[in-house]
Amino acid sequence: MTTEIMPGCEPFSATGSSNAVLVLHGFTGSPQSMRPLAVRLAEAGYSVELPRLPGHGTSVEDLMTTTWDDWATSAEAAYEELLGRCENVAVVGLSMGGALTAYLAQRHDVAACVFINPQLIRPAKDLVEGLAALLDAGVTTIDPIAGDIKKEGVVETTYPSMPLSSIGTLFAAMAGVEDHLSSITAPTLLLSSRDDHVVPSENGDALMAHCAGPIQRVWLENSYHVATLDNDAAFLESEVLSFLERVFA
To answer: Nearest to residue 163, comparing CAs of 144, 176, 189?
Structure first.
């Protein structure tokens, strides 16, 4: 297995106050996509952990050996480590990181949740069937859907392809995530891009409909899926900081 981490994909950690934030990146992405937000949170005085999820930030071959269980276990370990040294822990997630945020909020008493263009619901039946057909035909990877950024000159560090087996485990996990959205009671901020070519807005709609805690949705008008690196990044960071300030107060 590859152990060399691609430049910029290293995890990020900062020790600050007893209020902490766990930041989670998306599928085939890396800490690179979330680092600017993590740094802003650290500068605001929070303790911050931005882990590199298993199989990410190295090679597609590494990702092929991992599943949803690996990513969820890693996220939960990072959450519990933060909770062991901090009083309160909020969780912020982009895309699949949003699914992991929901997973943690469904299992733990998190202080708050921030979802950025999250993947939260079952994929369409024809998409699942198409994936199965490709796997049956011996296809192992497909073209990537990462790097959906509107801002010119900005690139997300990701893989040149996506392993179908890993996508399958992500799709399968979404049933459990979707079925338990109503168990999320923490204060929640949902940031949704008007134009997202990766995750349909129905995912955010489902969270708005079923989340049991207080929830606010903010629309991002000038960004695509990877909004943390896009035109609305500064606005997004300010919204997250304002939200967390209110929650931790």
So the answer is: 144
At 19, is the secondary structure helix, strand, or coil? strand
Give φ, ψ of 221 to 5 degrees.
-90, -15
List residues with catalytic annotation.
95, 196, 225
Residue 107 sits in a domain of what CATH number?
3.40.50.1820
Amino acid symbol at 124:
A
Classified as helix, coil or strand, 92 is strand
170: left (phi over 0), alpha (psi -120 to 50) or beta: alpha
Whether the model pTM is above 0.90? yes
Residue-wise pLDDT tens digits, 138-188: 999 998 876 799 999 999 999 999 999 999 999 999 999 999 999 999 999
Model pLDDT for residues 100-119, shown as the tens digit of each residue:
999 999 999 999 999 999 99
The reply to whether 151 falls in a domain is yes
